[in-house]
Amino acid sequence: MRLTKLRQLMAQLDYQALLLTEPLNIRYLSGFSGSSASLLITAERQFLITDYRYTEQAETECAGFDIVCRDRSAQSLGQCIAALLRPLPVNRLQLEYGHLSVELFSQLQHDLPLTLSPSTNLAEQMRACKDPHELKCLRQAASIADSALAWLLPQLQLGMTEREAADLLQQKIYALGADELAFPTILLSGERSALPHGKPGQRRFQHGDFILLDFGARIEGYRSDMTRTVVLGQASAEQQQFYQTVFNAQQAALAAVKPGISGHQLNHIAQQVLNASPYAAYAGEGLGHGVGLALHEYPLMRRGCQVALQADMVVTIEPGLYKPGFGGVRIEDDIVITRHGYQLLTLSPKQLQQLPA
After folding, report:
1. pLDDT in tens, 298-337
2. Domains contained in the chain, CATH given
3. Which of 53, 74, 257, 313 is the most buried (most CB within 10 A)?
4. What is the pTM of this model?
């Protein structure tokens, strides 16, 4: 089914052959979960090129593909492709320029008597809309994250370090059945919560801290991505206003979500709320991104993104404010686009939680 759709797109663009080198695109189209392979697609044939380490695995995972075991010491990837294409009516090959090293591109130029051209991001566009199995995995990953957060929050206490809290959260994610973490957990406190992607450190929680938690689980390769911000103890009036501003921006964007709206439009709606507040100078850039096999997938919803949302896309909605010396707030949900709107995948509470201290 996926190969059929890819070939239809290739035909529309007059692609004779396509070489895929990005591991997640290879996994999506072939099922191969190893770390070293290339995928060669023509109008009639599909080759999974790997080496002796992964041949047996590829034969098990990649039904319908010709598995080619390349001797890396005796044959370059370009020479291997040239041999495969020699009997076929192919004189042009499209490449994933964004996923090629200069060294590999130079080698392919040297070894292939073909015209090499860049391809559009066909696989990434296909990956944006999820099938029922993908949605099931994403729901499970989001559910694990929800449960892990609900377990963790009562454990947070004065004097605990960011690193200790992050370790507890990550252990719980695994205990709940995750295959892997979606990404290294971001857990920051106090003024450090103003670092959008900071790493947990040895800072100890203090009364009145913002605590920002950005984390997720992975199921069969599919990732959840959620952020919640809480206060340890009593929130100040400014903290409450700061938080409510982000909450209002997210709610405004969510209210506008529907098929056909662009990432640019949604970003603008959220930014209008942030810009009308006293905290406009501290607004983060961009509203969200697709999520699936990769943490940040097509489309990237920010200013200038003209991609229209479609049913079955899974994206994040995550406005944020980051004020140096004061702290940061981000509220992030995973949503799936439906025919008439959206459905939340992340279900953890979003009203400001003030934890006992």
Report:
1. 999 999 999 999 999 999 999 999 999 999 999 999 999 9
2. 2-126 (3.40.350.10), 129-355 (3.90.230.10)
3. 313
4. 0.95
- Say what percent of the chain tops pLDDT 90: 99
Rounded to whole angstroms, how far apart are CA atoms 317 and 309? 13
Residue type, 162: E
CA proximity to 239, closest of 277, 270, 209:
209
- 116-141 mean pLDDT: 97
pLDDT in tens, 260-284: 999 999 999 999 999 999 999 999 9
**pLDDT tier at 166, thresholds 50, 70, 90:** very high
Residue where the block lists tokens 């990769």: 294
Residue 284's pLDDT is 93
Q: SS3 letters for the chain?
A: CHHHHHHHHHHHCCCCEEEECCHHHHHHHHCCCCCCCEEEEECCCEEEEECCCCHHHHHHHCCCCEEEECCCCCCCHHHHHHHHHCCCCCCEEEECHHHCCHHHHHHHHHHCCCEEEECCCHHHHHHHECCHHHHHHHHHHHHHHHHHHHHHHHHCCCCCEHHHHHHHHHHHHHHCCCCEECCCCEEEEHHHHHCCCCCCCCCECCCCEEEEEEECEEECCEECCEEEEEEECCCCHHHHHHHHHHHHHHHHHHHHCCCCCEHHHHHHHHHHHHHCCCCHHHECCCCEEECCCCCCEEEEECCCCCCECCCCEEEEECCEEEECCCEEEECEEEEEECCCCEEECCCCCCCCCEECC
